[in-house]
Design goal:
The complex is a heterodimer. By secondary structure, chain A is mostly helical. Helix content of chain A is 74%, strand content 0%. In chain A, helix 2 crosses helix 3. Chain B folds into three domains: 70 residues; 42 residues; 238 residues, Thrombin, subunit H (Beta Barrel), CATH 2.40.10.120. In chain B, 38% of the residues lie in helices and 24% in strands. Chain B contains eight helices and 14 strands. In chain B, helix 2 crosses helix 3. Chain B starts with a helix and ends with a strand. About 4% of the residues of chain B have low confidence. The chains are: A mainly alpha, B alpha+beta. The interface between A and B is large, with 43 and 40 residues.
Chain lengths: 188, 368
């Protein structure tokens, strides 16, 4: 296929968080999803949420080295969005006969399942994080998300030395782990 | 403090930051102390979830940024701005290609079908039937004529063959007759009046362009009327005007009536009118009268596929033809003065016909 190489490049860019690739993908496919959602009882915000979820799913798939997209990105994104939106409509009890467009779709059941598992894990971590309270939350975010070292964090938060910061971080981490695993085990 | 160091060691071990010596030592410790091993496994799990959480947080914020940026640049539309019209336009854009393809396919099919129709439909010429009689018809008539006119000798030469028959009418009171050019297929012609009396006639002029022809009765037995009952109209007539005709689709004179259905003839031909009147082979050259008894046309053809659609040469062209003949100084033609006054205006139709029928002749063309 002609677009294959270009799409591979975009996917690699997406996997490595390249903002140009993300914008290109966003620009190419958002309109199609928006039209679909708006046609099917959805709002603009729904369109944004659903599309971004699909992009996340694509991103997480693209992370693995073994990932090969067997169809066009467009088809994949559309299929994911369609499944996600129909599911959401059902949950909201707003299910109506969907307006089907002539876009091709592919089976994405496995992806959706995987995506939902991930969503659950993410939600647990997110809840655990937000119930930590400051400064634990910011400290751990600084360490684990922004990947700052302890020296930087000590300066940022005003600890006199990195050992004190480490001490604080350790306590925070223990609390977070406790919170996380209490939920996570149930989730399993 | 030990716990903190241990935790740090686990993190360094899991993120492969330990050097070889440390790693070997730490692994020994893991082996010998189940608690530490358990902590490592647990933390590996947590670390994995944490990495995933971090990744997702990042991509989420990146997507959010991309959305804001594209919205700012107008590359994507905000929902509230997408009105009903916008939706329509979106739908239009969505189906533009499909519509295009459908239109192209439709156009192609239309072309193919019209091509087939043109290919298989009969060609133009057969759509028009000249109203002169064909040889076959004439042949039968000839036999009939032969038996009827045995005692009265036919004026058609013995060895001549009839080729066509039609109708003609008097142009003036000197025996000049008008008929269609396509009636005069042979070399000679005889005319027969409504009482069945034959007269010899000469072909004076044939105008193939207008499909008109002029004959002159050249027979001692012929008594010309003092004046013609009808006139020949110079102006055109109006749509819906009532018309009638007399002609010889058979050996006897036949009356027909109808109306003017179009100011132009077949394929918008401006030479002729379209009439709604039934006409048959033999009516060719017959006069078309309006209700006041003026000649408005000369019946010439009909449409083959449609019933009753007949075409007549406009009477104005009779004058044009005569003027052309005069200009060309054709001998014998300069004396023709078409009758200008109708004396049957306002009469009942049957009385009009009684007066007219003497002036309408059966024209038989023969070739030797």
């Amino acid at each position: 296929m002609k677009g294959d190489i270009n799409e591979q490049v975009l996917l690699k860019g997406l996997a490595s968080n390249d903002s140009k690739a993300i914008e290109a993908l966003y620009k190419d496919h958002f309109g199609m999803v928006q039209t679909y959602i708006l046609q099917n009882n959805g709002s603009y915000d729904d369109a944004r949420d659903i599309f971004q979820e699909a992009m996340i799913a694509l991103y997480e798939k693209a992370q693995s080295d073994s990932f090969v997209l067997t169809c066009q990105i467009k088809t994949y994104v559309y299929s994911i969005c369609r499944r996600l939106w129909l599911k959401r409509l059902q949950q909201m009890g707003r299910y109506t006969q969907p307006v089907e467009n002539l876009e091709e779709t592919v089976g994405v059941e496995e992806e959706i399942e995987e995506h939902e598992k991930r969503n659950a894990a993410f939600a647990i971590m997110d809840r655990a994080m937000s119930s930590l309270g400051e400064p634990c939350k910011s400290l751990l975010e600084g360490y684990y998300i922004q990947k700052k070292d302890m020296q930087q964090l000590a300066e940022m938060f005003g600890y006199t030395n990195s050992d004190n910061a480490k001490n604080q971080k350790y306590k925070c981490l223990m609390r977070l782990k406790k919170l996380f695993f209490s939920q996570y085990n149930i989730g399993e | 403090m030990d716990d903190i160091l241990l935790q740090e060691a686990i993190e360094r071990y899991l993120s492969h930051q330990m050097n070889e010596q440390e790693r070997v030592y730490f692994e020994q410790m893991r082996n010998s102390t189940p608690e530490i091993d358990q902590m490592v496994v647990e933390h590996a799990m947590f670390q994995h979830e944490m990495d995933f959480y971090a990744q997702r947080r990042n991509i989420k914020s990146q997507l959010h940024d991309a959305h804001t940026k594209l919205l700012l640049h107008g590359d994507i539309q905000h929902g509230s701005e997408v009105s009903a019209g916008g939706k329509l336009i979106q739908i239009f854009h969505k189906y533009k290609r499909v519509t295009g393809i459908a239109a192209a396919v439709g156009g192609f099919i239309a072309l193919v079908i019209s091509g087939l129709v043109v290919y298989f439909s009969p060609v133009n010429q057969t759509q028009l039937v000249q109203l002169s009689k064909d040889i076959e018809v004439i042949k039968r008539n000839q036999q009939y004529q032969g038996s009827l006119l045995n005692e009265v000798k036919s004026k058609i030469p013995e060895n001549a063959r009839l080729v066509a028959g039609g109708t003609g009418f008097l142009l003036d009171n000197h025996g000049y007759l008008l008929t269609n050019a396509h009636v005069l297929k042979g070399s000679g012609v005889v005319v027969i009046n409504s009482k069945g009396k034959e007269f010899n006639a000469d072909i004076l002029h044939i105008d193939n362009l207008r499909d008109l022809a002029v004959l002159k009765i050249n027979d001692s037995e012929y008594n010309a009327p003092r004046a013609l009952p009808y006139s020949i109209r110079k102006s055109t007539i109006d749509l819906g005007e009532e018309i009638f005709t007399l002609g010889y689709p058979r050996n006897d004179i036949v009356y027909g009536e109808g109306y003017l259905s179009s100011r132009t003839g077949f394929n918008s031909d401006s030479l002729t009118y379209q009439l709604q009147i039934s006409a048959n082979p033999g009516n060719s050259g017959g006069p078309v009268f309006d209700r006041s008894g003026e000649i408005v046309g000369v019946l010439s053809t009909r449409q083959a596929q449609a019933e009753g659609i007949t075409f007549a040469v406009k009477s104005g062209y009779i004058y044009t033809m005569l003027a052309d003949c005069k200009a060309a100084k054709l001998s014998g033609m300069e004396k023709i003065k078409p009758s200008q006054q109708s004396s049957i205006r306002g009469l009942e139709r049957k009385d009009q016909i009684i007066r007219i029928e003497n002036c309408v002749f059966f024209v038989k063309a023969y070739s030797k």
